[in-house]
User: Which sequence fits this backbone?
C-alpha cells in the first residue's frame, strides 16, 4: 500500500481543497509512491512522534497540525524536517480541512461534549463548515459548564464569569478567538474553543456570550483516536499507532 492511498483516503474524508487560505495541509514530506510499513497518527510532528515511528517501524506520520507553515530558508541536522528525511518518513497533514469536515475535529468535540441538534455554519465546501452550534445536554451555570468541559476533554478550562443560564453553544476546536464575530451572529449563550486572548474575553462579555477556553491541545487531540479508527478500517493490513504527547505543564 502506497502513501498516496492514505492521502487519497483522507482527501475523501476531509477534502484538502477546503482548507483555509493560510493553511498548509497536504502531503508535505516524502514520496507518495513509498510503500507504507506503518502509520503513526498524532496532533503534531515532534521528535517524540519520530521516535515512535522508528520504534514501530512506521514510515508515515499523519498529523493534524502542519509542520511547515512559513517559507524555509535552512534545514539543519537537528531539525524535524531533516530527521524525517533522514529516516525516510513521509508526512501528511490534515489541518483546517479536518476541522471543518463532517466527522472531523469539531464534530468529534461536539460528540465528546454531548451537544445535540448540531448544525454547521459558514460553509467552506460540501459538508464542511467553519463552526458548529447546537444545544448542551443540560442547562448549565458557567461554573458547572466549565467543570463539565474539563471532565469531557481534560486539561484546564478558562472561562468568563457569566451569570445567565447556558443552553445553546457554538464550538470551534483549536484556536477560535478570531471567530467570535461569527459566533455572535448565531445568538448562542456560550462559545467553546481554545487559545482565547484576553481581548476576546472582554469582547465576548460585551456581546453577552459566555466564553470557555478549553485549550488548543485538548480540543484537538481528541481527533487522533477516531482518525486511527477510520484508517484501520480502510487499511486493515497496516499497523496504525495513535500517539498522544504534550510536554507542557501547568500549576
Assistant:
Amino acid at each position: 500500500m502506497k502513501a498516496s492511498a492514505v492521502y487519497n483516503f483522507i482527501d475523501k474524508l476531509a477534502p484538502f481543497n477546503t482548507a483555509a487560505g493560510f493553511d498548509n495541509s497536504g502531503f508535505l514530506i516524502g514520496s507518495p509512491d513509498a510503500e507504507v510499513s506503518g502509520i503513526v497518527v498524532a496532533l503534531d510532528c515532534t521528535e517524540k512522534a519520530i521516535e515512535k515511528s522508528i520504534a514501530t517501524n512506521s514510515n508515515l506520520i499523519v498529523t493534524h497540525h502542519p509542520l511547515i507553515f512559513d517559507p524555509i530558508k535552512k534545514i539543519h541536522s537537528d531539525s524535524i524536517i531533516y530527521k524525517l528525511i533522514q529516516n525516510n518518513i513521509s508526512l501528511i497533514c490534515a489541518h483546517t480541512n479536518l476541522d471543518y469536515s463532517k466527522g472531523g475535529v469539531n464534530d468529534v468535540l461536539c460528540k465528546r461534549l454531548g451537544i445535540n441538534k448540531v448544525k454547521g455554519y459558514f460553509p467552506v465546501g460540501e459538508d464542511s463548515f467553519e463552526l458548529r452550534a447546537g444545544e448542551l445536554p443540560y442547562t448549565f451555570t458557567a461554573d458547572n459548564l466549565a467543570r463539565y468541559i474539563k471532565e469531557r476533554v481534560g486539561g484546564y478550562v478558562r472561562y468568563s464569569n457569566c451569570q445567565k443560564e447556558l443552553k445553546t453553544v457554538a464550538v470551534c476546536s483549536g484556536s477560535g478567538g478570531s471567530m467570535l464575530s461569527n459566533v455572535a451572529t448565531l445568538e448562542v449563550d456560550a462559545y467553546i474553543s481554545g487559545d482565547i486572548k484576553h481581548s476576546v474575553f472582554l469582547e465576548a462579555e460585551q456581546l453577552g456570550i459566555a466564553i470557555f477556553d478549553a485549550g488548543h491541545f485538548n480540543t484537538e487531540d481528541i481527533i487522533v483516536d477516531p482518525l486511527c479508527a477510520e484508517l484501520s478500517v480502510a487499511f486493515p493490513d497496516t499497523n496504525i499507532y495513535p500517539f498522544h504527547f504534550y510536554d507542557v505543564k501547568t500549576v
